[in-house]
Amino acid sequence: MKTKLFTSRIAAFSAALLLSTGIAHAGDLFNRGGSLKDAPVVHSDRPELSANVALTTDYVFRGISQTEENPAIQGGFDATYRMFYAGVWASNLDFGSDGNGNDIANIEIDVYAGLKHKWRNTEFDLGVIYYAYPGAEDAGGELDYVELKFGSSTELTDRITFNSTTYWSPDYTGETGDVISSEWQVVVALGEYRGMKPAFSALIGYVDFLDDGFEANSYTYWNAGVEVGLNDKFTLDLRYWDTDNDGNDPNAGENSEARFVGTVSASF
Question: In angstroms, rounded to a whole number, what is the distance separating the alpha carbons of residues 153 and 15?
Answer without folding.
Answer: 18
